[in-house]
Amino acid sequence: MEFEKIKLVTVDITQLAVDAIVNAANRTLLGGGGVDGAIHRAAGPDLYRECLMLEGCDTGSAKITNGYRLPAKYVIHAVGPVWRGGNQNEENLLESAYQTCLQLAKQYNCKTVAFPNISTGIYGFPKENAAEIAIRTVQKFLNKNEIPERVYFVCFDQENYNIYQSRLEL
Ligand code: AR6
Known about the structure:
By secondary structure, the chain is α/β, with parallel strands linked by helices. The protein has one domain (6-158): Leucine Aminopeptidase, subunit E, domain 1 (3-Layer(aba) Sandwich), CATH 3.40.220.10. The chain has helices at 34-43, 45-54, 90-107, 127-144, 158-168; strands spanning 6-9, 20-25, 62-66, 74-79, 112-115, 150-154. The protein has a 6-stranded mixed β-sheet, sandwiched between helices. Strand 3 and strand 4 (74-79) form a beta hairpin. The longest helix has 18 residues, at 90-107. The chain is globular and about 40 Å long.
């Protein structure tokens, strides 16, 4: 098991000096509310300019940019699914969003990566279910790959923090 490679933290993700932070974006990749808004505000207008050139991203996938004014070197913009009751392939799409982020992190040699709780805010994905998918996907990847070396789950709200804490048995 790779529990020691996974850290649980409660911080504003924009403050983390890691190789890559993950953004919970939407398909336009042009910003929004929640963690997406916070990341764009902290990174500055150059992030928006780079995102404009990406021409959006499919749900369940991700694209990488520079971090600009952020302490993080890169931002990986993931598009999680909107929760529509569970019969619209939401679980597979969430897993695929995490998986694509991890592949990009590996490709760009990101040793440290921080994830927010994708889809569990404005997109309404049930938190227990999302945590199970996130942890399982990350653990599986870390078991098979050298990079990333460490993954931070950034749980901004107390409910998510408690869920992750019990699932990771910290
Ligand atoms: N640092 C870490 N986590 C945060 C921060 C922060 N600064 N701010 C919020 N969170 P959400 P979604 C947590 O709604 O559900 C945007 O408009 C928050 O507590 O940001 O994937 C996009 O443009 C929650 O646990 O993302 C999309 O349109 C988690 O981040 C849409 O929202 C995700 O909540 C995406 O919705």
